[in-house]
UniProtKB/TrEMBL annotation:
It comes from the Bacteria. Residues 797-904 form the Phosphatidic acid phosphatase type 2/haloperoxidase domain. It comes from Massilia hydrophila. The lineage of its organism: Bacteria, Pseudomonadati, Pseudomonadota, Betaproteobacteria, Burkholderiales. Pfam families: PAP2 (PF01569), YjbH (PF06082). This is YjbH domain-containing protein. InterPro entries: PAP2/HPO, PAP2/HPO_sf, YbjH. CDD domains: PAP2_like_5. SUPFAM superfamilies: Acid phosphatase/Vanadium-dependent haloperoxidase.
Length: 930
C-alpha cells in the first residue's frame, strides 16, 4: 500500500501551470480519472489561478487565468479607460493526451498543447515520455521535446523517499525561452534563462504545495485535488429514517379502505417524507401511486421509500403495487411489484435481490400510468400548505427562508452572489443580492413561476465601456440592465407541461423568461427506448425587455428555433448538438460535451459556430469570434449531511458577447428528465431501493462507467484486411490512367466554366449552390456517424468504413494541396498559377474528396449510384462559388472514390462489430479470429 501511495503521488503532481509534471515542465502522466484540481502558482512574473480536470482517463484539460507583473492591462488613457483593470491578464486553455500508459518495460508517452484558444501568447506543443523506477516505484524520470513553449529538449526527475511519506524532491531542466515571451523586455521574464530548477513538495490528502528555487528567484504552487470518482464526501448523518411499519394503522378490507381515512393517511405519511403531487388509486386489487420527490436524489431510493410506506398502509387483499415516478406531474418511470410478500421480504432483508427482481417490472411510463386527479381517491383532499420557516445550511444555502406544500407550491428567499471577470473597467466585478422565488401550481401540469431580485452590494453597474458589437445587442448591454434598478422582477411566466404519448413530452410557456427577454414558445422532447439518445425542438418568439426590469420593452424582436440531439458515449460522456437560429438572428450550430463522474459532478464545454460576425477582439473580420465556454455542475448531496437534489452550477464564458447566444429556458425538458432516466437505466433500475447494507456495499446507485472496449484487435483486423486488399501494380496502373484521363479531360472545362461563373457571382442560385457545396461534406460525415450510432450491424460497418475513407481522402487531399499549390479561381491568378498559401491551395478539392469518400461505401454496399450524383452536385457547388476549378473537383472525387472503394472492398464482409441497445444496457460484441 505504501509503494502504491508513493507511486500515485509521483504520477500526479501539478506544475505551477496546473498540468501534471514538475515545476514548469510536464511529464507524461495525467491525474487519476475524474480528478479535479484547483490551485494558484506564482513564478515571476507570472501568477496563475488554474483548474485542471481529467475528464477521461487519458486526457487532462487545464484552464488558467494568468496575470503578468510589470505590464498594465491597458495603456493609460486620458479618459481613464482601463485604469482599474490592473496588470495584464490572459485566459489560457491547455490539454495533455496520454498516448501510451506506462507498463513494465514501456514508459508512459503523452503529447500536449498549451494556449489552444484565444490570444495564444503562451502557445506551445510538446511530446514527453516518463518512467518510474525502483521496487517502490518512488523515482520517476521524464524526457521530452517541445516547440515554442517549451523550446527544445527538457527533462525532469522526482524522488519520493519511502521514509518520508508525503514528501517529494524535484529537479528539472526548464526549456522555456522566456526572452521570447510576450513583452518580456518589460518584465522579469526578459532576465530569465533556460536551466536547472530544484523543488521540494508536500502532499497531505487532497492538499499539496511546492516551493522551487530557480537561478535567481523562488516560485510557489499550492492546490487542492478533489476525486470526483468518490460517490459522496460527507456521510448522511442527518438523513431522515424511512417509514416504520409499526406506525401504520391496522389493515382493513379493500371496501373499507376505499371509504375510510386510510388513503388520506397514506398521502400524509408520504408528504411528511418530502413527496409531492401524490395521487393514490385502488384499481381492483392493485394499489397505484403517482408521485415525485424533490429531495431524494436517487429515483430508485425514492420509489423504495414510497413502496415501503404504501405496503404499510395497503388494505388486505392487495395483490400488486404500481408506483409511477413523475416530474412536474409528467410520468417518467413505472415500477410494478407483482408479489407483495416478496416485496415485504426484500424490504426487511428476508429475500435476496435476484429473487426479488423476478417479481418486479421497471419500465418507461405511458400517459395511462399517471393517476390523475379525477381518478384519485384524494381528489377533494387539500392541505393548507406548509409554514414559512428559516432553514440553516439547507439545499446548499447558508440560510434561507422557505415554504413548500404537498402540491409543490413553494416560496424561497435566498442570498445570491455572482462574479464577472475580465471587463476592461475592472478585472473582477461582483454582485450580491437577495432572490425570492414563488412557484404556484395552477392545475394539472400547469405552473406559474416567478423570481424577484434585490441587489444589495455590487459594482457591475460600474462597467461603462459601450459595446462595439455589430450584431443586435442581445447580451452586450448587460451592464445597462445591472444599472437599471436594484429591485427587479426577473421572471414571471406560466408553463404547461404535457405528456403527448409514451416517450413524448412537451412544454408551452409564456411570460417574462429572464432579465433581458420575454416571450412565448414551447418545446417537444422525444425520449426513445434506446437510452443512448434523445432529441428535442425548441421554438420561442421573443422581445427584449427594458433595463428597469418590470413590464417595459425594447423594440428588438426575434424568433429562435433550435433542434437538439443528445447522445451518450462511453465513460458517461454526453454530446449535444444544437442547430438553428440563435438570439441575435444568427444561424449555426452549437456543440456541447459533458462528462458525468461517479459522484454526479458534471464538467463540460461548448463551442458555437454561426454566421454572426463578432469582430470584437480577439475576433477579426477574417476570423470572427465564436462563442465558447466551460461549465461545472456539482450536486450538493455529495457535500451535505443529508440527501438533496439541489445543484450548484458554474460557467466561465464571455458575458458581453452577442454571437451564438440562447435565451434562458423556461423549463428545459431534457435536463428535467435526464437524471431520472439515468437512474432508470442504471443496473436493474432499482438503485438503493431498500437502503440495505448489501445495497450500500454494492455500487447500485450509480450507473457503471462504460469504458471504451479495447480497440486494438478490431483496428489490427481492419489494417490487415485493408493491406491484403491493396491493389496490385497492374490495377494501380490501370486506375491511374483512367483517373489521369478524367482529370485532364475536365481541365479543358476550367476556363470556360469560370468565365461563365465570374460575372454571376452575386446570383442567388449560385450562391445557395455554393453554400450547399460547402456544407455537404459535414452533412455526409454526420450521416456516416449516425450510421455507426443508430444503424444495424451492416450499416454500422459501412459507417465505420465511410469515416475511415473520409479520414484517408482528406489526408491525401491536404498533402496534395501542399505539393501542387494551385491557385484558386477567386485569386484571379489563372488556372496554372501557384496559390499564395499552399495549405489553402485549390487542387484537389478537399470537399469533393470527402464527399465521394463518404458516399462510396454506402453506394457500393446498397447498390445506390444516386449517392454519387448527390456528392457530385454538392462538389460542383464549390465551382459555382469560384473556390475550385472543375478539374479540382474531378480530382478530389477520384481520390475519394478510390479510397472509399478500396476500404469497402477490404472490409465489407466484417460482421464482427455490433452495438445492441437494450432496456438496461448496451451490448458491444466483437467476434472473429485475430
Amino acid at each position: 500500500m505504501l509503494a502504491l501511495t508513493v507511486a500515485n503521488a509521483i504520477a500526479a503532481t501539478p506544475t505551477v501551470h496546473g498540468q501534471s509534471g514538475y515545476v514548469n515542465m510536464p511529464n507524461a502522466n495525467v491525474e487519476a480519472d475524474s480528478t479535479f484540481t484547483i490551485g494558484y502558482g506564482y513564478d515571476s512574473p507570472y501568477g496563475s489561478f488554474w483548474a485542471a480536470v481529467t475528464p477521461l482517463p487519458f486526457l487532462q484539460v487545464t484552464g488558467r487565468y494568468v496575470s503578468i507583473t510589470g505590464i498594465p492591462g491597458f495603456d493609460r488613457n486620458p479618459d481613464g479607460y482601463g485604469s482599474e483593470y490592473g496588470r495584464y491578464k490572459d485566459k489560457i486553455a491547455d490539454a495533455k493526451l496520454q498516448l501510451v500508459k506506462e507498463s513494465t518495460w514501456m514508459p508512459a508517452v503523452a503529447v500536449g498543447a498549451t494556449d489552444l484558444l484565444g490570444t495564444e501568447l503562451f502557445q506551445g506543443r510538446y511530446i514527453v515520455a516518463s518512467k518510474t523506477f525502483g521496487s517502490a516505484r518512488n523515482l520517476e524520470a521524464s524526457l521530452g521535446f517541445g516547440r515554442n513553449r517549451p523550446s527544445g529538449a527538457f527533462a525532469g526527475v522526482r524522488w519520493a523517499p519511502v521514509s518520508m511519506p508525503g514528501w517529494a524532491f524535484v529537479a528539472e531542466y526548464d526549456a522555456i525561452d522566456y526572452a521570447k515571451d510576450f513583452r518580456a523586455a518589460e518584465t522579469d521574464a526578459g532576465q530569465r534563462k533556460k536551466g536547472p530548477v530544484v523543488a521540494a513538495e508536500y502532499r497531505w490528502g487532497w492538499l499539496g504545495a511546492q516551493i522551487a528555487r530557480h537561478r535567481d528567484h523562488f516560485s510557489a504552487n499550492a492546490y487542492i485535488s478533489i476525486p470526483f470518482s468518490e460517490r459522496e464526501f460527507i456521510p448522511k448523518l442527518y438523513e431522515p429514517a424511512y417509514f416504520q411499519a409499526k406506525n401504520a394503522p391496522a389493515r382493513v378490507s379493500l371496501e373499507e379502505w376505499r371509504s375510510s381515512t386510510h388513503p388520506a393517511a397514506l398521502v400524509q405519511a408520504l408528504v411528511r417524507q418530502d413527496y409531492k403531487n401524490v395521487r393514490v388509486e385502488l384499481d381492483g386489487a392493485t394499489l397505484r401511486l403517482s408521485l415525485t420527490n424533490n429531495r431524494i436524489s436517487d429515483m430508485g431510493r425514492a420509489v423504495g421509500r414510497a413502496s415501503r410506506t404504501a405496503l404499510a398502509f395497503a388494505p388486505a387483499g392487495v395483490r400488486a403495487i404500481h408506483v409511477t415516478y413523475t416530474k412536474l406531474e409528467q410520468p417518467i418511470a413505472t415500477y410494478e411489484f407483482f408479489d407483495i410478500q416478496r416485496l415485504s421480504d426484500y424490504l426487511t432483508g428476508l429475500a435476496d435481490r435476484e429473487s426479488f427482481l423476478q417479481t418486479v417490472l421497471v419500465r418507461y411510463s405511458n400517459p395511462a400510468d399517471k393517476v390523475g386527479e379525477e381518478r384519485s381517491l384524494l381528489a377533494a383532499i387539500r392541505d393548507d400548505g406548509a409554514a414559512l420557516g428559516v432553514q440553516i445550511n439547507h439545499d446548499g444555502n447558508f440560510v434561507q427562508v422557505s415554504s413548500e406544500d404537498r402540491e409543490a407550491n413553494r416560496f424561497k428567499l435566498v442570498p445570491k452572489f455572482s462574479l464577472f471577470f475580465n471587463d476592461p473597467s475592472g478585472a473582477l466585478r461582483y454582485e450580491t443580492a437577495v432572490a425570492a422565488n414563488y412557484d404556484k401550481r395552477l392545475g394539472e401540469g400547469l405552473y406559474f413561476n416567478s423570481a424577484f431580485k434585490l441587489n444589495l452590494f455590487e459594482n457591475v453597474s460600474g462597467v461603462t465601456q459601450p459595446s462595439n458589437s455589430l450584431l443586435p445587442h442581445v447580451r452586450t448591454d448587460i451592464a445597462e440592465y445591472k444599472r437599471g434598478g436594484r429591485f427587479k422582477l426577473q421572471r414571471a411566466l406560466v408553463n404547461k407541461y404535457m405528456t403527448i404519448d409514451e416517450h413524448w413530452y412537451a412544454r408551452a410557456s409564456g411570460g417574462l423568461y429572464e432579465e433581458m427577454f420575454r416571450g412565448a414558445g414551447g418545446q417537444v422532447l422525444y425520449l426513445p427506448q434506446d437510452r443512448r439518445w434523445a432529441a428535442d425542438l425548441t421554438v420561442d418568439a421573443l422581445q427584449q425587455r427594458d433595463v428597469k426590469g418590470w413590464l417595459g420593452r425594447r423594440d428588438y424582436k426575434t424568433v429562435t428555433a433550435l433542434g437538439a440531439l443528445h447522445y451518450q458515449l462511453p465513460y458517461d460522456v454526453t454530446v449535444t448538438g444544437r442547430a438553428g437560429r440563435f438570439l441575435a438572428k444568427d444561424e449555426g450550430v452549437r456543440l456541447e460535451f459533458k462528462r458525468r463522474f461517479r459522484s454526479g459532478v458534471e464538467i463540460g464545454a461548448w463551442f458555437t459556430k454561426t454566421n454572426g460576425k463578432d469582430i470584437t477582439s480577439p475576433g477579426t473580420p477574417a476570423d470572427p469570434y465564436n462563442d465558447k465556454g466551460i461549465f461545472l455542475s456539482i450536486p450538493l448531496n455529495i457535500t451535505l449531511p443529508s440527501d438533496s437534489q439541489a445543484v450548484a452550477g458554474f460557467a466561465i464564458s464571455p458575458w458581453t458577447r452577442d454571437v451564438g447566444q440562447m435565451v434562458a429556458s423556461p423549463g428545459e425538458l431534457y435536463e428535467l428528465f435526464e437524471d431520472p432516466r439515468r437512474d432508470l437505466n442504471a443496473y436493474d433500475g432499482l438503485g438503493n431501493f431498500a437502503e440495505r447494507r448489501d445495497e450500500q456495499q454494492r455500487d447500485v446507485i450509480t450507473r457503471p462507467v462504460q469504458r471504451l472496449p479495447d480497440a486494438w484487435p478490431r483496428f489490427r483486423w481492419r489494417v490487415e484486411q485493408s493491406v491484403s486488399a491493396t491493389p496490385t501494380l497492374p490495377q494501380w496502373a490501370r486506375g491511374s490512367l483512367l483517373a489521369g484521363g478524367a482529370v485532364l479531360a475536365s481541365a479543358a472545362l476550367d476556363k470556360p466554366v469560370d468565365r461563365f461563373v465570374r460575372p454571376r457571382e452575386d446570383n442567388r442560385v449560385l450562391d445557395a449552390w455554393g453554400k450547399a457545396g460547402k456544407a455537404m461534406p459535414v452533412v455526409l460525415a454526420g450521416a456516416a456517424g449516425a450510421a455507426v450510432a443508430f444503424g444495424d450491424n451492416r450499416m454500422q460497418n459501412m459507417g465505420i468504413i465511410s469515416l475511415q475513407s473520409i479520414a484517408g481522402a482528406a489526408g491525401v487531399s491536404m498533402v496534395s494541396k501542399r505539393v501542387i499549390g494551385r491557385a484558386r479561381p477567386n485569386e484571379e491568378l489563372g488556372a496554372s498559377s501557384h496559390a499564395g498559401k499552399r495549405s489553402d491551395a485549390s487542387f484537389p478539392s478537399n470537399h469533393a474528396a470527402v464527399a465521394f469518400a463518404a458516399v462510396t461505401p454506402f453506394a457500393q454496399e446498397y447498390d445506390a449510384p444516386w449517392l454519387y450524383g448527390l456528392a457530385a452536385i454538392g462538389s460542383l457547388g464549390r465551382v459555382a462559388d469560384r473556390q475550385h476549378w472543375v478539374s479540382d473537383v474531378v480530382a478530389g472525387g477520384v481520390v475519394g472514390y478510390a479510397i472509399g472503394s478500396w476500404l469497402w472492398q477490404a472490409q465489407r464482409d466484417d460482421s464482427r462489430f455490433a452495438i445492441t441497445p437494450g432496456s438496461k444496457q448496451i451490448a458491444v460484441t466483437w467476434s472473429g479470429t485475430y
